[in-house]
Amino acid sequence: MRRVTTVGSVAAVLMLTAACGGGGEARGGNSVQPVGAGKALADAYGSGSGYGAAPGELSGSGAGSAAGGGQAGPAGQLAVREIASVGSVVTDGAGATLYRFEKDTPQPPKSNCDGDCATAWPPVPAADAAASAGIDAALLGEVTRSDGTRQLTLAGWPVYRYVKDTRAGEANGEGVGGTWHALAPDGKKAVDKKQQAGGGGQSGTGMGMGMGGGSGSGGYSRNPDKELSVAVNEKLGRILVDGQWRTLYRFDKDSAWPMKATCVGACAETWKPAAPVDKSKASGIRPELIGTVKRPDGSEQLTIDCWPVYTFTGDTEPGQTTGHNKQGLWFAVTETGKKAPVSAG
Question: Which of 152, 162, 218, 249 has a CA-to-CA distance to 261 between 20 and 30 Å?
Fold first, then answer.
């Protein structure tokens, strides 16, 4: 849908206003908590550790003072924990998920996360770290950071926590920016190992086949001729996916009238603006609901019922919906452009 300014009669403008004025939906719900969430990490590390931040304290690239200057508590005895949406991940002694950064290097070990990055992703100290069942102690090591402190490594990868994981068993950092991933016990990405173990399928996403595809049992069906279609999710119902079967999301800080996309910069690195589609290659959605909006950088972004839509880098397998209800601001999109049910996330 292109912006309409002076084209057409007053009646046409009024009709467009009515079509794109549906911005009155209430924002609801807190961010989804992964299966296995437990005790508050702030309690586990103590008030003086400076570790942990309440959801929503960080904005944009996730800097600020929420992490107390990036300080972190000791690693303690590492353990392996199963998180449904991610797989078998390594946690510290308090149950916090541990991460690796794709811009670091394991051979030789080198950390490239400093300054604001280290505030949002506190490096885990090397001292006092110990392995438990399922983790090879020989894979534990350390690297000296630019400030002279010693950081824990696993299979050569520098190890971090994430300030938005505020309770044991959370993995809110998985997939952030497409560069942060929860660690598997061998130092690889936990999500990759989960996918390999499932034969590359879509384990646990609960997606059925798309429109006209019959009823699936947790599988999925991609139509290479479609750039936009409807998938059936057992929790969220009928939601929109792109041609690669990636879930589409809308952002509560955007607006439908006037159409405006506000996710830019670091935000757009995590939430990728969806590209415009050919309406003739869309299935299960009324053509008049499909449009575009010009972004601040001049590029065109897909809109559904006038809402700009995005894909989430944290969705690492086709049909995943891990971005639904993130921060109480991001929601999977239904075939009518509305938000999928908040309580179902």
Answer: 162
Phi, psi of 294 (to 5 degrees): -85, 125
Distance (Å, whole) CA 50 – CA 8: 59
For 104-158, write each residue's pLDDT tens digit: 999 999 999 999 999 999 999 998 899 988 899 999 999 999 999 999 999 999 9
Pairwise CA distance, residues 213 & 263, whole Å = 34
Adjacent-strand bridge partners of 157: 154
d(CA 95, CA 187): 17
Nearest-angstrom CA–CA distance, 88 and 50: 27
Query: How far, in Å, CA of 91 to CA of 94, rounded?
Result: 8
Residues 220 and 319: their CA atoms lie apart, in Å, by 7
Q: Report helix, strand or coil for 273.
A: strand
d(CA 66, CA 54): 8
Confidence (pTM):
0.46
Strands (E), the chain: 79-83, 87-91, 99-101, 105-106, 109-110, 140-144, 150-154, 157-158, 180-182, 228-233, 237-242, 249-251, 255-256, 259-260, 271-273, 290-294, 300-304, 307-308, 310-312, 330-332
DSSP string, 60-95: TTT-SSTTTTT------B-EEEEETTTEEEEE-TT-
Q: How far apart are the first and last CA of the chain?
A: 29
Q: In whole angstroms, what is the distance from residue 322 CA to residue 332 CA?
A: 9
Q: Is the pLDDT of residue 240 over 50?
A: yes
Q: Could you count the other beta carbons within 10 Å of the beta carbon of residue 157?
A: 27
Q: How many CB atoms lie within 10 A of CB 104?
A: 20
User: What order of strands is seen across the sheet that includes strand 157-158?
Assistant: 140-144, 150-154, 157-158
The stretch 161-189 carries a mean pLDDT of 91
